[in-house]
Specification:
With 638 residues, this protein is an alpha/beta fold. 40% of the residues lie in helices and 16% in strands. It has a domain at 2-157 and 193-224 and 259-301: Rossmann fold. Pfam families: NmrA.
Length: 638
């Protein structure tokens, strides 16, 4: 049958809905092509998507919307072109239309990037109105040029809206379990579809003469629901009533212009969908459209009810994992993490929970209303972590939290390092802690030749060490040296906007021969949790210095050059110039430069021998930890 099926080109296939469309095309037996920018291959996320396409038998064509020659060449391979480009590239679809015309008018069908509301039948306002206007403009050009088309209106993506019950102001990853915001009176009907189903209906439509020059609406009856109905359905599944906050239309209209981008766009979309009922206020007439589930009744789509079941299963699974963890915790220490919503803290909390420790996270009440931190906290809850509200400045909450555990790990940020004296005081009062790991997670501050302002930052950590020792609190200091996430994605470059290692030129501090140690955050967490119950590391320093992660800057650059098969132009900055730059740079650049001077010029992380009297090396103690080497980490960017 594949000989009768159209050959399909997807432009924008590495985007959100695009990857589902590409997979749906390939799995449906269509000869499938994906136009991909070469830069996508060096992106860790998109590179993985492209590899998945290849595994499915998709032909990868390299090109760009701004490169007409590559567009025409790609289009000449196929019968159908599907665009799934994002908001910022909507108007660039003019280039696709031009290329379709130039390729000889052999294209049987063009599907522009719609995949949302019907933009010709909307009452949207503000930023949503502007977005819809661009899509409407593309429609008019398609029609004026006489290009055969199908517009696919899938309405809402389940992954965007149903997974959070349309809570766009919170950053949830699963439906809320305590309170929910409802827009307007909650009675306007919306339509929510699973991404895989959208892809399947799209594939059905492209060779169907009934959908030629028509709008295909994906409006299956079981997926047409109001927000009130969705919330009630979720409540029935979890056996609990949620606290409901209704946001009136007037209040929402006021909030939209006051909100930063992209929240203003999300709120404007929610206004159109859940207040005005944009997706369901009109009747689909045969003159302009057809409904997908009526055309293709054999497609077994996922209903709203069925989609929500996966989250009920997750709750049960997390509960089971948590109970198992509690049972195992009889042999493992109970751990409290203070500063768990911070950079390294979230890795520590996750590893503690995943390792079977009964895990607690002390969280400030303000974090629960922070869009980013509240998402982290929700993830902790999903892992079975017990959230305790408190603050390092609230002695009572500290003592109460500490009394519930055996081990305290602090991962608070640089601005609160000295506040750890309050943790020490609370530990002394609680009287039950077997081990305290203060917020180190960097260079060994007792063995550094750092200059200002890094010297002062390290001195504060030294002060905490001495306070711990003077109070007789059992400890382990974790020295992980450099975070891979800070240094390796840019190969220690300060170039603004750089998100991957350079491919043309590189700056090297000093002569580039000083050895540094760089570790992946997940590995740091794994070694940290391994040490909490290890008597060998009691009152010692744990150095995370795996041999494959101990390299000089020159060695890292050489390794990267080998991976990309290209020599970089190297600029060495002598120590004298680095010291001058430190003095002339503003905060926090001066701090970063001073740390890099310590690490990559002075070699502070590797200039001494680890003696058994004060420390132990993690990869030797725990050879079963399969750490990620620098070479493996860089491979994601090659």
């Amino acid at each position: 049958m594949a000989t009768e099926q159209s050959k399909i080109l997807v432009i924008g296939g590495t985007g959100y809905i695009g990857k589902f469309i590409v997979e749906g095309s390939a799995k449906s037996g269509h000869q499938t092509f994906a136009l991909v920018r070469e830069s996508s291959l060096s992106d860790p996320v998109k590179g993985k998507i492209v590899q998945n396409f290849k595994d499915l038998g998709v032909t990868i064509l390299y090109g760009d919307l701004s490169d007409k020659e590559s567009l025409v060449k790609a289009i000449q391979h196929v019968d159908v072109v599907i665009s799934t480009v994002g908001l910022s590239q909507l108007m660039n679809q003019i280039n696709i239309l031009s290329a379709i015309k130039e390729s000889g008018n052999h294209i049987k069908r063009f599907l522009p990037s719609e995949f949302g509301n019907d933009v010709d039948r909307t009452m949207a306002i503000g930023p949503a109105k502007s977005e819809f206007a661009m899509k409407a403009e593309i429609r008019r050009v398609v029609e004026a040029e006489g290009v055969p088309y199908t517009y696919v209106i899938n309405n809402c993506f389940d992954g965007y809206f149903l997974a959070t019950l349309a809570q766009c102001e919170t950053r949830l990853t699963s439906p809320p379990r305590d309170k929910v915001t409802i827009y307007g009176d909650g009675n306007a009907k919306a339509i929510l579809n699973r991404e895989e189903d959208i892809a399947e209906y799209t594939m059905r439509a492209i060779d169907d003469p009934r959908t030629l020059n028509k709008t295909v609406y994906i409006n299956p009856s079981k997926n047409i629901v109001s927000q009130n109905e969705v919330v009630a359905l979720w409540e029935s599944k979890i056996g609990k009533s949620l606290e409901k906050t209704y946001v009136s239309e007037e209040e929402l209209l006021k909030k939209i212009p006051e909100s930063p981008h992209p929240l203003d766009l999300l709120l404007a979309l929610n206004h159109a969908i859940f207040v005005k009922g944009d997706q369901t206020w009109f009747t689909i007439e045969p003159s302009f459209g057809v409904e997908a589930s009526e055309l293709y009744p054999d497609v077994k789509y996922t209903s709203v009810d069925e989609y929500l079941n996966q989250f009920v299963f997750q709750i049960a699974l997390y509960s089971l994992v948590y109970q198992l963890s509690r049972n195992m915790a009889t042999e493992k220490s109970k751990i409290l993490v203070i500063g768990g919503t911070g950079y390294i803290g979230k890795f520590i909390v996750a590893e503690s929970a995943n390792s079977g420790h009964q895990t607690f996270a002390l969280v400030r009440e303000a974090s629960l209303s922070d869009p980013v931190k509240s998402k982290v906290v929700q993830n902790f809850k999903d892992l079975g972590v017990t959230i305790l509200q408190g603050d390092v400045n609230d002695h009572e909450s500290l003592v109460k939290a500490i009394k519930q555990v055996d081990v305290v790990i602090s991962s608070i940020g640089s601005m609160q390092i000295l506040d750890q004296t309050k943790i020490i005081s609370a530990i002394k009062e609680a009287g039950n802690v077997k081990r305290f790991l203060p917020s180190e997670f960097g260079t060994d501050v007792d063995r550094t030749s750092a200059v200002e302002p890094a010297k002062s930052a390290f001195a504060v950590k030294i002060q905490i060490r001495r306070a711990i020792e003077a109070e007789g609190v059992p400890y382990t200091y974790v020295v992980n040296n450099c975070f891979a996430g800070y240094y390796l994605p840019t190969l220690v470059q300060f170039e603004p906007g750089l998100t991957s290692p350079p491919r043309d030129k590189v700056t090297i501090l000093g002569d580039g021969n000083a050895k540094a140690v760089i570790n992946k955050e997940e590995d740091i967490a794994a070694y940290t949790i391994k040490t909490v119950d290890d008597p060998r590391t009691l009152n010692k320093i744990l150095y995370i210095n795996p041999p494959k992660n101990t390299l000089s800057m020159n060695e890292m650059v050489s390794l990267w050059e080998t991976k990309i098969s290209k020599s970089l132009e190297k600029t060495h900055i002598p120590e004298e110039q680095v010291l001058k730059l430190i003095q002339e740079s503003p905060v926090p650049i001066n701090v970063l430069l001073a740390i890099n001077h310590s690490v990559f010029v002075k070699g502070d992380q590797t200039k001494f021998t680890i003696e058994p009297s004060f420390g132990l090396e993690a990869s030797e103690l725990y050879p079963d930890v399969k750490y990620t080497s620098i070479e493996e980490y860089l491979s994601h960017f090659a």
